[in-house]
Amino acid sequence: MRKVFTIITFYFLLSGVAQSQVYFEEEETDSLTFKDRLYFGGNFSLNLGFGNAGTFIDVSPLVGYMVNEDFSVGLGVNYIYFSREFFFFGSNDTFKVSGSTYGGRAFARHNIIENFFAHAGIESMNVDVPSNFQTGESQREWVPGFMIGGGTFQPIFGRGGINVTILYNLLYDDLRSPYGSEWVIRGGFTF
């Protein structure tokens, strides 16, 4: 199954016919300058929990380049901060877990139909990974990810708008991954 996903992903990455998430108001990309082909955006998530629900902050800016009106590639950085308080079972004692995860990513997007795109990307995240469960010790490691999936872009103003992307991490590692599942849902904006 992973081989099928890999083949499909490379098709999207190498395809010359693809579409960017950036909305064009009937502009021809042949007439666009380098500056006009750039777009900026990213993801921002904020969850400030009450009580022991914790805090989760995800800031992931990106810059993309429209190769043509059908295909875009880009780079981004990821930063995730989390903090949560846990109760020991059967007592009122608590312990707090907090930390940061950071890294970078590269991606390609291919439009399937208007406002819907396929997405493929690679990333590497620096994660605090448990090294000894008995003592609670951990060490930082770079954890790779290979994401494939798709999403939708909804224009709101000019070339800007919001997007939602659903991705499957082909390199998901239950122990080391910064995500709680092999499925990752991202929401963001583009301008």
Unreliable stretches: 1-27
Using the alpha-carbon principal axes, give the shape: elongated
How many alpha or pi helices? 2
Can you summarize the main beta sheet?
8 strands, antiparallel, barrel
Count up the domains.
1
Strands ordered across the widest β-sheet: 1-2-3-4-5-6-7-8
Summarize the structure in words.
It is a single chain. The two termini are 36 Å apart. The chain contains two helices and eight strands. The model is unreliable at 1-27 (pLDDT under 50). The chain has one domain (2-24, 33-128, 149-164, 179-190). With 191 residues, it is mainly β. The relative contact order is 0.19. Helices cover 9% and strands 62% of the residues. An eight-stranded antiparallel beta barrel has the order 1-2-3-4-5-6-7-8. Strand 4 and strand 5 (116-132) form a beta hairpin.
SSE arrangement:
Blueprint: H1 2-14, H2 34-37, E1 38-48, E2 55-68, E3 71-87, E4 94-113, E5 116-132, E6 137-157, E7 160-169, E8 183-190
Antiparallel strand pairs: 1-2, 1-8, 2-3, 3-4, 4-5, 5-6, 6-7, 7-8
Which labels suit this protein?
191 residues; 8-stranded antiparallel β-barrel; disordered N terminus; single chain
Short description:
By secondary structure, the protein is mostly beta strands. It is built from 2 helices and 8 strands, in the order ααββββββββ. It has an 8-stranded antiparallel barrel with strand order 1-2-3-4-5-6-7-8.
